[in-house]
Amino acid sequence: MTDNISDNMTHHPSSNTAKRWKIYGLVTLAIPFIAMLIMVGINLRALENTEYRVAITGYDPRDLLRGHYLIFRYQWPENAMKSCDPAKTQCCACFSGDPQNPDIKFLQCTSPEATSCPDKLALNGLQPENRHLNRYYIPEQQAQYIENLARQDKADFSVGLVLYGSKKQPSKNGRVKMLYIDNKPLPQFLKEQSVQ
Amino acid sequence: MFKGIAGKLQRWQDAELLSTQQAQDILAFEKQRKAGRLTRHLTFTGFFAIILGLISMVAANWTIIPDQAKLGGHLVLNIGVAWAMLRINPATHPVAKDGLLLLLAGLFLSFIALIGQVFQLHGELNLTFGFWLLICTPFLWYYGRTALVAGPWLLMTLITGFWNLVLYFDQTPDTFWIIGAIIAVYLPIILMTAHLYPWFMQYKSGFAETFLKAGYIIPAFAANIALFLFYDRDRLLLHMPQLALFLGGFILLAIAFHKERNLLAYLLISNLLIILPFTFQSAYALIPALLFIAYWGFLAWLGQRIDSDNLMNWAIRLIILRLFIIYLEVFGNMLFTGIGLVLSGIILLLILRYMNRLVIFGRKLIGHHD
Q1: Interface contact A24-B111, CB threshold 8 A
Q2: Is the pLDDT at B2 greater than 60, yes or no?
Q3: Which residues on neighbouring strands pair with residue A103, listed in sequence order?
């Protein structure tokens, strides 16, 4: 004796109900596939936005509990803080100009200048409010090599930061698209160094 | 020595337990049953070696595999497992079908993790599990039928639910404990009464059995957590609305299980312990310990009444261990001395060595005669 709904229904000669139940089953199976495709689509679309290059520094030991993440701090240009002091109020970093060498200005998030800035990121002190923007996943095999490189200060590190979301939002969402070492994307750098 | 079943059959023939014809029939039957076994095992080994090799190659070259290939490959794998699951007839191979269902759910979790890795998402783990359960529950419920799916699903749902609750009430832990206690009172009622629905029993019998067992276990689990919470003296106490909710739970229990006296007694006493930490604060550390022993003594007695040797024995074992822990709590300072450590170690070893005799003694104490 079967106890699956659609299997039971197929014993009846006119089985529109059975077909309908089979379709319900396929719909439940399609849900996670659709969800995965939507997740991939949203993220691919987000990464199509302008990628701003920002220098990073100050490496902490990897957070082993969350896998192998490189934890870093953003190294903002010296003149970024002229219009807003993050020690006194919340600032937003406004990005403009050449993405490879962007013009970054700290502005008061509620100021008219900040409102009209197309690509801005809310900060908490000197770092992004979204703390996930201070980490980058490194595969285990390369983690030790990169960490040593950073600790010994033997290379220049920067990240490609992508901002996405509505311009009307007080702050856009951000994503770290790529880690650059000596201006080369991580996979290319590792390939040239023959690190697998 | 190497004659196998033929040798056994010969010995049985010699002892006139089997006739010659019977022995020949048995031998023929076994040969047919085992036919192709070696081939099947070697085939399985071959496929396993291929899969292992593929996994190793992927792992070794993970960093140079393009992200599109990783995502595309995982998608193809998920589609393949889903297709294989759909092909299996649940009437003849329910365990295989449910096994593939579980594998598929696991693959969706790994797919979410892969998307996170490729796009550097760094999502919160509790929300990731919640999302995963949300998208997988519909097909697990639709296609699943045995405890192989029901058990893990229920466990993950409870863990994820409480995990998110704990984090949501991070700033007000007392609120979490009260909500948790309310859930611990009502959830077993919902789980145990689910099997009363004919539709559920007919189409999801494995789920119904699993829910019933979970409904039996949760009150004891929650009662023991409540006893640990009883140690905490700075605790939020109940107001009337919350007390009314608990009392409502008690009334529901009485209505749902009034015909099953043993079960009702177990649920009422467990629920009383669950709300105990929220009704008054214990002035003495020994009171929760004594309540623990009394509760498990009650469960041992209940085990005797329902002829459950397992329940009886485990309850007595827990009481013995708890008495040992009381000894450690009372003479805790002695553990800082060499003699104290030696004595505690000897006592623990003696308890473990003579545990069975202590259990038999405990059974006699509660009136059980073997």
Answers
A1: no
A2: no
A3: A96
